[in-house]
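ligand=zinc ion
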Amino acid sequence: MKEESLHEIRHSAAHVLAAAVMRLFPDTKIDIGPATDSGFYYDFDVSHKLTLEDLPKIEQEMKKIIDENQKFECKSVSREEAYTLFSSKNQGYKLERLKDIPEGETVTLYTNGDFTDLCRGPHVSYSKKIKAFKLTSIAGAYFKGNENNKQLQRIYGTAFADKADLEAYLNKIEEAKKRDHRKLGKEMQLFHIDDMVGQGLILWTPNGAIIRQELQNFITEELKKQNYDMVFTPHIGKLDLYRTSGHFPYYKESQFTPIVDGEEMQTLAKEKCCCAELSNRLDEGTLNGFLLKPMNCPMHIKIYDSQPRSYRELPVRLAEFGTVYRWEQSGELNGLTRVRGFTQDDAHLFCTEEQIPAEVGGCLKIVKFILTTLGMNDYRVRIGLRDPNSQKYIGKPENWEKAEEALRQAASTLGVPFSQEPGEAAFYGPKIDFVVKDVLGRDWQLGTVQIDYNLPERFNLSYTGSDNQLHRPVMIHRAPFGSMERFCGVLIEHFGGNFPTWLAPEQVRILPINDDLIAHSQNLAQKMKEMGIRVAVDDHSDKLNAKIRRGELAKVPYMFVIGNKKKETNQVSIRSRINKKMDGSMPVEQILEHIKQEIINRTLPC
Ligand SMILES: [Zn+2]
Ligand SMILES: [Zn+2]
């Protein structure tokens, strides 16, 4: 007997869901319900406003249908037959969908029980094959994803081959919810998004700022070891700069509206210029203005180009934690991971053709070291290559070959899996992307290393070679973690808020068991601060248990409990979140030295 695929099970569960909703709410108009990577959904137009409370009732109805062991039957019909059927049932969305089936393609219907759907299948043979399912959420969804259309109600669910798989998946979802960086961000006071500042614009509160600063320090240390030079550039630049680079108006859909020059604006106002005209003039370049920086590259290019360069100086490696701004639709914004302003761990390398392999190798070495230090050992790289059949690429084919080979070489030395994906290169050069798997097994696409033959051309960059002639450098863009915002979001979820000591906003909390010990605790705290340890004293007047509970909620790596006796012997009782072996009493000097080492070595929690 044939093995039912997960896809068939999920798609069939979607049909059962639709059948159940139609039984419960007979006025329901159905749209479509496909299987997805993690389950299935179905879109409904139903006068009843669906809420989470409805889901158990719908699940029950689905169980009934499954127990009826309905057969899934496929039937090819003519367009007219399908049209007559769905119009007799007053199913307008189905008629719309029917129109979208290309002429000449067979129209098929799937029926189980009294439910019939316009559908290509495939499905399970009988409804009892759906052994483990669960409805998970409800959301609004525009018909055909177009916001000018009516908003329908979407029910999401998931289904697996058996109960154990379903259980494992639901547990994973539960764990993901606990680790959600938006939730932890609030609880641990890491960042804030304020409507008055603007959606998608991150306010790093003191705790989160510590994490970001520590990460930036760490990355900077590594960059300096590889002879990068740090630079700073402004947040806005003239439109002409981005016209030359090609970022404007080509990518203007994903950029903030340009800022028009003040004097020009006055003239425009006198002329009573309309918005459409203003926009046109900006596009065609007859009006000057500034752009909120969408990319750091053109500014780094201008730093490279601010003096004549000799081959002896190459590679020139310019690095900046550069903040850029992109216009994301408000519906797409999500905590730290989809934002409108973010800081790239950006750098641009200007080098000769021959230097590409070593430079790419260096980039990957840093990434590997940083990911290993953070305990993110499960990652892979994707190499984006040319599509051999396309003419859209600029630069000489022999250079492309060399660059692609350089990326392959560099990737193979990493000792992690890599895939090669033809057609995934940009038109101006091949690239490497990093994909990290977190502890929950979720993939996070981080940043890239990208070879670029285009911008040096557009900005007419040069260096003087050993032959005393001018040559064109090659440029490498690299922002391996993508953005500090996104990367911190990933890290919060990866650690579930339990940061290693070096990243923890508060590394030690001192808990005096009574108010008489507060002064002593504060003296100890001061001494620790001078050693560079981030420490706080819990001087609330409540019981020790309450203090411990607060420390645990704040996920502080170490708690020092100070009692009268301990004070006399200069010892502390330790509760360690990081290293259970450390629990117990210890002389102060000894534990402080241990924590100090843990911070310097960036030790992972064990
Ligand atoms: Zn279907
Ligand atoms: Zn760049």
